[in-house]
Specification:
InterPro entries: CcO_II-like_C, Cupredoxin, N2O_reductase_N, NO_Rdtase, Nos_propeller, NOS_propeller_2, NosZ/Cyto_c_oxidase_sub2, TAT_signal. Strand 17 and strand 18 form a beta hairpin. The protein has a 5-stranded mixed β-sheet, with helices on one face. Strands 30, 31, 32, 34 and 37 form a 5-stranded mixed β-sheet that branches. It has a 4-stranded antiparallel β-sheet with strand order 3-2-1-29, with no helix packed on it. It is mainly beta. The protein has 7 helices and 39 strands. Among the domains are: 42 residues, no CATH class; 114 residues, Immunoglobulin-like (Sandwich), CATH 2.60.40.420.
Amino acid sequence: MDSSNDNNKNGSATAVEHGRRGFLGKGAALGLAGVTLGLAACKEQGASEKAAAAKPHQAGGGSEIAPGQLDEYYAFISAGHAGEARILGIPSGRTLKRIPVFNVDCMVGWGITNESKAIIGTKPDGSLLYNTGDTHHVHGSYKDGTYDGRWLFVNDKIHSRLARIRMDTMECDKITQLPNVMGFHGIFTDKRDPVDPKINYTTRVFCGAEFHIPLPNDGHDLDDPSRWGALFSCVSAETMEVLWQCRVDGNMDLVATSYDGKLAASNQYNVENAADLNGMMSAERDACVFFHVERIERLVKEGKFTTIGASKVPVIDGRKAANPDPKTAVTCYVPVSKNPHGVNASPDGKYFVCSGKLSPTATVIELAKVLQWFDGGLKDARDAVVAEPEIGLGPLHTAFDGRGNAYTSLFLDSQCVKWNVDAAIAQFKGDKNAKVILEKMDVHYQPGHNYASMGETREADGKYLNSGNKFSKDRFLPVGPLHVETEQLIDISGDKMRLIADHTAYSEPHDGIIVKRDLVKTRQIYNMDDFPNAVKPENAGIERHGNKVHVRLMSQAPAYSMPVIKVRKGDEVTITLTNHDKVEDLTHGLALPTYNINFIVNPQETKSVTFKADHAGAFWMYCTHFCHALHLEMRSRFLVEA
């Protein structure tokens, strides 16, 4: 982490060894505040300390993909406050696609075309409801305990929205806003139906709310946070409608689901339901709250619910006071270390693991014991905890290799720790010889999320682990005050972890999944008939109704179907464009200078835009996406009469 000048006199970069271990060891003794100060001061580290520091693993072979060869996996990751999702190839780390979701993207026209505006949502004047988003977590749909390649789901923490991405086109097709929720952070899909054994695929998406707000948030109770609350939401994967919500004690962070479909859970901080930091830190422990999905849905079916404000979504009370009897309770609050971060399901379906964050521990919860508590057979919910190993400073998120080992990111230690779940359970039972910690690896620096290849499924293959690191100073060429972040790829297939590649990441990615390429089946060409407004020779041309003008346009390299389009100043103009090329990868674009119009149409696809022709003149409408040797000549004159 040292940033002193280690280049030679000629200015050529040499290998720099950063003495983080000594620095972090001192910083840990100062506590979280001291570490934060230390991060800013790490440039002061001396040469002698650098020389004494342990060397990190060296990047080596294994990540190079030869020209013409394909990656083994797709990585689907969130992009944070960029508002999009991203696709990387693994192990190359090559960026394959950026999927606009909650952001405006002037390349594809997301947030510009009528079709994308309808998905994002608009105000009465036709402008976007929101121009910003904050994606944190991406998760896929399942069948038989593994990914089925149908959908991806991603959240928007700022505006409490859930988006769905079709995996055949890698484009967002639906967005839903959750009612009476703020700070929608964690999501996870269910893996099968909790009641019907024939339904072994994803039908629901669970969404955890982080912030307490007045319910409803309509301007009342603003000065009495004791009356505020948070809701856990269930959304239909098929329709994207909110099916039900459950009010809880505490703030929710991330979400996990069981392989049998019976349980969903969220790790929690602020079980005190406080509105300030001091109040949030008063309890000895926080919790992982478990939701008994079948019981909640039974109450909804029986009409035993309330609603909040103008929302018609059924709300079930999952607070402790309303659920004193485990045999009828819809929630179970398992005490865990204070301020936990992350909850992850082991591939064998037996355990959920919560990380301590401010505690150097991970809490292993046995799901069979949680169900035992719901049946009244467990005296104390804390008895569902079967291990709580000490693993390092600042544990956040845990991935699995399918061989019984867990990999947890250590934010304060800037490490990934590999530990064995069975050994941790044995140690918890009193086995002093159990070897829990198998290995620790330095990462650069301050890791947040990590995720393993197929690690969120029954087919966890233990091949690759990605460490998403929040700080990267000195790791790459400097580009000003805003540094890129680091995605580090680690080979976990052997007995020892091996760092094989560093990849840069534009701020600020969070969680992701790594999916085998054969599970992803994309389409390369659209079906024109899937678009009701497709423009064909029989309906192409200009149609006027008063001051509303519809321009129906076709594109086929290297020309648009109309060389001249004439409208009048003040007209409301809709341009509908259909790409008639059938060649894979032959995309066209349409840009209209001074009118804020820019979008693309893929082969056989149709998109449209609507705008007011509010200034007169001649404007060259041109193709933005290289399509032909005469690409530069592909344009039409858009004439607006005064």
